[in-house]
Design goal:
The chain has 9 helices and 10 strands. By secondary structure, the chain is α/β, with parallel strands linked by helices. The chain has one domain: Purple Acid Phosphatase, chain A, domain 2. The strands form 2 sheets. The protein has a 5-stranded mixed β-sheet. The radius of gyration is 18 Å and the shape is globular.
């Protein structure tokens, strides 16, 4: 049996991430993996989207700049620098965990590397800080290589973990992904996708759960992009594929 601690999309909410890991006893007070993690009795899976704040207010918070403007090269440099610093901290934690902490590639992580799509949201946020064509500062090569090593999915005893959804096309962030309504809406419009894909159960992020984590045992999935609600998912998984799942708060 293994305990799996799964945390939804981070989007630079480092403090909330560390609080969740400490509440689950996956991180100690010094920011290191705990003994259960080192022993492999606990496994940690982060659902990706480590980068790109969701709001202008969060950009202002991490950069210390009022009136953050994605068109201002100095602001972009500050945003890139602040995120780079924290990514190195997460990288160190992951490396110390000896393979028992894994990160799934999110579409924002991918965009921070490839610059094929300039992502933003309806609140007027544009994520240009890593894009040199927009006068942003690319991530250091060491971090780029690390992120390129993130998995697109993890499967444990029939339980599927990926960023956006259960189908293969939801794991590659191309034009089809960004133009496919299912990438955001499958979980309530077509919940049968999880079983259709052959998964016993699925755990996914990508779509903000405004009222907290959705745990749908009937259709076999959890939608866990709810870190801002101070929630994460815990699962006990047996070797035979039987499992228990619960929403945990901190």
């Amino acid at each position: 049996m293994v305990k799996v601690i799964t945390v939804g999309d981070v989007h630079t909410e480092w403090g909330l991430l560390y609080s969740a890991l400490k509440a689950s006893f996956a991180m100690d007070a010094q920011g290191n993996p705990t003994q259960p993690v080192l022993d492999g009795r606990y496994r940690v899976i982060l659902m990706g989207d480590l980068v790109h704040p969701k709001t202008i207010a969060r950009y202002e918070e991490i950069t210390g700049r009022e009136g953050y403007d994605f068109r201002n090269p100095d602001h972009l440099k500050s945003a890139s620098r602040a995120q780079t610093r924290e990514l190195y901290k997460i990288k160190e934690y992951v490396e110390k965990a000896e393979g028992n902490v894994e990160i799934i590639l999110g579409n924002h992580d991918d965009a921070a590397l490839e610059h094929k799509f300039l992502l933003g949201n309806a609140m007027g946020v544009i994520h240009a800080e890593f894009d040199p064509s927009k006068e942003g500062t690319p991530l250091p090569e060491e971090l780029q290589n690390w992120i390129r090593g993130f998995k697109r999915y993890i499967r444990l005893e029939g339980i599927h973990f990926s960023h956006a959804g259960p189908l293969p096309g939801m794991m590659y962030f191309d034009d089809f992904f960004y133009n496919d309504r299912d990438a955001k809406h499958w979980w309530h419009e077509k919940p049968h996708y999880v079983k259709d894909a052959g998964h016993t159960f699925g755990v996914y992020g990508h779509t903000v759960m405004k009222d907290g984590i959705v745990l749908d045992l009937d259709n076999g999935f959890a939608m866990i992009d709810a870190l801002e609600k101070r929630q994460y998912l815990e699962m006990l998984i047996n070797d035979d594929g039987n499992f228990q799942a619960r929403v945990a708060g901190f």
